[in-house]
Amino acid sequence: MISLITQIIIIVLFLTFSFGPAFFALINTAIKHGYKTGVMLATGVVLSDFLLCLSIIFLVHYGATSVIQDDKNQRFMGILAGTILIIFGSLYFRKNVQKSTETIEIKQPSTISMILKGFFLNILNPAVWIIWLGNVTAVSKSLDYSLFKMISFFSVTLGLVWLVEVAKVSAASKLNKLLTEKIMTTINRITGFLLISFGVLLIYKHYFIE
Fold it and tell me: What is the pLDDT of residues 87-143, one digit of tens each?
């Protein structure tokens, strides 16, 4: 039991403080659009984690992990994910943030668009697939390869991940009132640069490196 609790803590910390594209998009969204919008993005990220985790649980249970480990599949996912990250990153360079008399007024994106953005930012990152393959493989033996035990274990884990993500959103959203339009524009451009960099790196790694 202590070992499983330790593994939950490690997985939660690893997932919530991995500085990948979803992390920076989440912080940026919470700062720019506030708590509720940031929570929707976080929900999309965790939903994609749950789907990935559930898929890999079944793959591990039925011995079909070679699907994820296949070089052609990884290459395709890497190039696709890189392209999408570059597109997302480019959107952050569209225009400067305009400030009103007292607060930064920005059109709020819809709930569905934020959930979908979080979902696809996360699920199309090949590194996330490998992380989940490692997580599920690492604990499956301790759980006797039981579907029920594995699903229960990772449901609890992802519930905690969501709570930590919400806490991050809450902390970031409080910075909004302290920001000037110049600072906000700079944050947008840094976020866009990081997303584009992740995208270029993924394409380079999966297309140019054998």
Answer: 777 876 765 555 443 443 445 678 899 999 899 888 877 777 777 877 777 677 778
SS3 assignment, position 27: helix
Other Cβ atoms within 10 Å of 144 Cβ, number: 9
d(C-alpha 34, C-alpha 36), whole Å? 6
| Other beta carbons less than 10 A from residue 41's beta carbon | 29
Residue 202 CB neighbours (<10 A): 25
Structure tokens at 46: 């965790």
Whether the CB-CB separation of 55 and 162 falls below 8 Å is answered with: no
Look up the pTM and report it. Answer: 0.66
Our CA dihedral for 187, 189, 191, 192, rounded to 10 degrees, sits at 160
Cα(62)–Cα(58) distance, integer angstroms:
6
